[in-house]
């Protein structure tokens, strides 16, 4: 389920570029897009929690440990993920998009799977196994082929710096999210992240004398698509996949996003995929198979991964249970 959830998240995020382009054509500004995206996402997640109280509980963590999970530090961290991490990454990304071609932006931004993998290994959260190395190389090469297959690109120094800044910020975001994703139910975590990001965008709108929301219904329709598909659904599936796979595997799976973007552009904008792009897409998908060839992680108890057992206090089957 973990890799499948990560792929679904990547597909939802990949659709955002198409929705965003259609929203821009309908008169939506980048500032309005970010503000409405995060605010509407926070409202939708809040309504979901009100209508479905069961989503406030974590089925993967025993009830006896749930009370120790949602500490004030965890809640503040979740809000900070949105207010600082996600808002900063989105701002850098869309600022870079105004200065450089989308293909080159994606090429620079998708260095983050490599950054996440290296950082996770250095922090001791993941092991640099041969399977994971092979999957990272295959996915990176596939992404390179997909993006370079779009044709010539124009290099822009400032845009490139902003794009790499977005990649570095997203790397930190994923690593920090990995520390709290096991301590909050996914819907609550996503709601807090969206609320934090919406607050940051609201403050930004006040400082910059407001954001124009006077566009037509077409603009609101595409913003609703971004909020529902490329924000709420994308974030929920990403957090659910992250907690099952770990940061490096989740980041590698996210390289499926530009493949989806390119394919949707071909379907909606009448573009034709080149043989190079087809080959790149197949390489990215094959990286999923490479990751699945890894030996199943030892120390699992039922459907709960070993890292979940350690944090939830569930004894391993190989460990004797002693009673004092």
Secondary structure topology:
Blueprint: H1 2-14, H2 16-25, H3 30-51, H4 63-66, H5 72-97, H6 102-109, H7 112-122, H8 130-148, H9 157-180, H10 186-207, H11 217-245, H12 247-253, H13 256-269, H14 275-292, H15 306-312
Q: Can you walk through the features of this model?
A:
Keywords: Cell membrane, Membrane, Transmembrane, Transmembrane helix. It is found in: Cell membrane. It comes from Streptosporangium lutulentum. It is a multi-pass membrane protein. The longest helix has 29 residues, at 217-245. The protein has helices at residues 2-14, 16-25, 30-51, 63-66, 72-97, 102-109, 112-122, 130-148, 157-180, 186-207, 217-245, 247-253, 256-269, 275-292, 306-312. Residues 63-68 and 295-324 have low confidence and may be disordered. By secondary structure, it is mostly helical. The protein is built from 15 helices and no strands.
Question: What attributes does this structure have?
Answer:
72% helix; single chain; transmembrane helix; 324 residues; mainly alpha; disordered C terminus; EamA_dom
């Amino acid at each position: 389920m973990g890799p499948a959830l990560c792929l679904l998240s990547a597909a939802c995020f990949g659709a955002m570029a198409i929705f965003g382009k259609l929203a821009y054509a309908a008169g939506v500004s980048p500032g309005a897009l970010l503000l409405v995206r995060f605010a509407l996402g926070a409202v939708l997640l809040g309504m979901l929690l009100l209508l479905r109280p069961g989503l406030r509980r974590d089925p993967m963590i025993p009830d006896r440990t749930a009370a120790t999970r949602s500490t004030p530090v965890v809640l503040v961290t979740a809000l900070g993920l949105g207010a600082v991490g996600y808002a900063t990454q989105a701002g850098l990304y869309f600022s870079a998009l105004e200065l450089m071609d989308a293909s080159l932006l994606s090429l620079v931004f998708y260095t983050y799977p490599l950054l996440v993998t290296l950082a996770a290994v250095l922090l001791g959260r993941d092991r640099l196994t041969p399977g994971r190395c092979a999957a990272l190389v295959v996915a990176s090469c596939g992404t390179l082929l997909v993006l370079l297959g779009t044709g010539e690109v124009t290099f822009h120094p400032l845009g490139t710096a902003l794009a790499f800044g977005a990649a570095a910020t997203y790397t930190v975001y994923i690593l920090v999210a990995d520390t709290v994703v096991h301590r909050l139910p996914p819907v609550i975590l996503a709601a807090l992240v969206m609320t934090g990001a919406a607050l940051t965008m609201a403050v930004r709108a006040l400082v910059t004398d407001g954001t124009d929301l006077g566009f037509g219904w077409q603009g609101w329709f595409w913003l609703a698509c971004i909020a529902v598909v490329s924000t709420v659904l994308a974030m929920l599936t990403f957090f659910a996949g992250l907690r099952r796979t770990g940061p490096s595997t989740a980041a590698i799976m996210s390289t499926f996003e530009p493949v989806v973007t390119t394919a949707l552009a071909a379907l909606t904008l009448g573009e034709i995929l080149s043989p190079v792009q087809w080959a790149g897409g197949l390489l990215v998908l094959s990286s999923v198979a490479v990751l699945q060839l890894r030996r199943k992680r030892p120390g699992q108890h039922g459907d709960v991964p070993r890292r979940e057992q350690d944090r939830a206090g569930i004894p391993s089957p190989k460990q004797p249970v002693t009673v004092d």
